[in-house]
Amino acid sequence: MTEAILLVGGKGTRLRPLTVHTPKPMVPAAGVPFLTHQLARARAAGVEHIVLATSYLAEVFEPYFGDGSSLGLHIEYVTEVEPLGTGGAIRNVASRLHSAPDDPVLIFNGDILTGLDIEALVATHQSSGADVSLHLTCVEDPRAYGLVPTDASGRVQAFLEKPQTPEEIVTDQINAGAYVFRRSIIDTIPAGRPVSVERETFPELLAAGAHLQGMVDSTYWLDLGTPQAFVRGSADLVLGRAPSPAVPGRRGDRLVLPSASVAPDAKLTGGTVVGEDAVIGAGARLSGSTVLAGAVVEPGAVVTDSLIGARAQVGARSVLTGVVVGDGASVGPDNELREGVRVWCDARIPAGAVRFSSDQ
């Protein structure tokens, strides 16, 4: 059995207002909390025991997932009193692991949507004899990420944080946020204080001569840290571009949960999701968007690449493009909101208050 640790303690600051009332891994993607997709994929790869390292709004996880038996898992929960960083969180849950010192332990960041071949990463770890193995992916512009160059055998050579000049960009391989640790290595992480695996643990292990192995897997990969990325990830799950056994319905242009109400002439495309008890009015057009539970999109509204929070309302004929509307907020009729606008939870925008002329 391979055990896993899921790091789900982050505050999700970049995702606000989605994360004001909900921790990032519990925001619905393709009809279920995003964490459900990660848990289901881990189970499909043979994982049976998972420890959730929680912190922000920690109290919401266990009531939803319980002991994990509904997913065929045994789930335990460990809550950080103070945020400990990625390395500190891993060390903080070590006592809940059952693995022997040389056994592999999977570790996932709770905000990455990926098609990673989990079993292949474990196999690479075991066949290479590594102390730590990292999932690496290749990106076109690596300046926002930490680079991880490897030699011809895949052995990690260095960790280079967010290079900016062309001379510093020596590879397009980045740390993709999934690891396999030799169990005994976890106990070498300092306990009781914040530790970053990316900036402290991995560089120190490398400097001490440990074997860190990289496996490049360039299947689907998306960091869901921004609202735009989160909406895209949800749509990609519905469209079948991102794999998950947890999507509650057939993949296609739309996913409408059973208790939702959609007018016959409304048009839903691009992986749009309509959540429980949500209402989509006559003639509304939604593309690549997510409408959470109990929200209302009134007749004639046009919503593109946007997320409408739980119990929120989009008024008739309003046009939203690349927008996040927080839980309980109201966008009145005849408004136009453009890329990057975030409407805070419970905010009210009156009818026709925000409009753009064609020459703006």
From TrEMBL:
InterPro entries (alphabetical): GMPPB_C (IPR056729), Mannose-1P_guanyltransferase (IPR050486), NTP_transferase_dom (IPR005835), Nucleotide-diphossugar_trans (IPR029044)
Family matches, as Pfam families: GMPPB_C, NTP_transferase
Domain Nucleotidyl transferase intervals: 4-236
Domain Mannose-1-phosphate guanyltransferase C-terminal, residue spans: 252-333
Family in the record: Belongs to the transferase hexapeptide repeat family.
Cited PANTHER family: SUGAR-1-PHOSPHATE GUANYL TRANSFERASE
Protein name: NDP-sugar synthase
Organism listed in the record: Streptomyces montanus
Source taxonomy: Bacteria, Bacillati, Actinomycetota, Actinomycetes, Kitasatosporales
